[in-house]
Design goal:
With 200 residues, the chain is α+β, with helices and mostly antiparallel strands. The chain is built from 10 helices and 4 strands; from the N terminus they run βαβααββααααααα. The protein is globular and about 45 Å long. The structure holds glutathione (GSH).
Length: 200
């Protein structure tokens, strides 16, 4: 049985969503981010003291994007892991791009507009982060304007990984007005039945 460490309201959700898409059973060990660095059971599988972490038999892995690449490659029977080497490289490209170009700025917006208590919030920091997002959003808009999904016609793990990052956009109150293709794509990805199942 696959084990995922982490709660749904954490990056562990990315892996839970994928496991629901793949139809692979798993168990969740609830570790909240704030307790992660103190949890001895988690530290044994992820010395960083962060979630998610995966245990699959004797195999242990941390980093959400690496976990999803492993799960998709190993367990895909529904077409989420592309057949061609080039498309698999594109999965990595968009997953790395999401973490490097989008994730941090979205997190700052979410914290300063939603997660943190009012007295900790600094509207200027959120505005600055949203400004930083304009560059990657333009890139994504240009890419998605001509195709339904990142790799073309079909939803793949690339879409799941990047859309999972964009889940934070709602809480960060990001204005997608200038980016209609991105908004359409996020909506399509986040309304998938497997994601709803993972949320529930
Ligand atoms: N790059 C890592 C980031 C993991 C991460 O920062 N997880 C957060 C929860 S979403 C966490 O465990 N925070 C606890 C801490 O930093 O002490 C991944 O994608 O798995």
């Amino acid at each position: 049985m696959i084990t995922i460490y982490g709660i749904k309201a954490s990056r562990a959700f990315r892996c839970m969503w994928l496991l629901e898409e793949l139809g692979v059973p798993y168990q969740r060990i609830d570790v909240a981010p704030k307790e992660a660095s103190q949890r001895l059971d988690l530290l044994k599988v992820n010395p960083n003291g962060r979630v998610p972490a995966l245990v699959d038999g004797a195999f242990v892995l941390f980093e959400s994007m690496a976990i999803n690449a492993y799960l998709a490659e190993r367990y895909d029977t529904v077409g989420l892991w592309p057949a061609s080497r080039e498309d698999r490289a594109r999965v990595l490209q968009w997953s790395c791009w999401g973490v490097a170009e989008v994730e941090e700025a979205l997190l700052v917006c979410m914290r300063h507009r939603h997660t943190w208590a009012a007295e900790r919030r600094e509207p200027a920091k959120a505005a600055e982060a949203e400004q930083k997002l304009q560059r990657p959003l333009k890139v994504l808009e240009g890419h998605l304007a001509g195709r339904p999904y990142l790799l073309g016609e079909a939803f793949t793990v690339a879409d799941l990984n990047l859309a999972a990052i964009f889940t934070w956009a709602r809480f960060g109150r990001i204005d997608f007005g200038p980016y209609p293709s991105v908004a359409r794509w996020i909506e399509g990805c986040l309304s998938r039945p497997a994601r709803k199942k993972a949320v529930a």
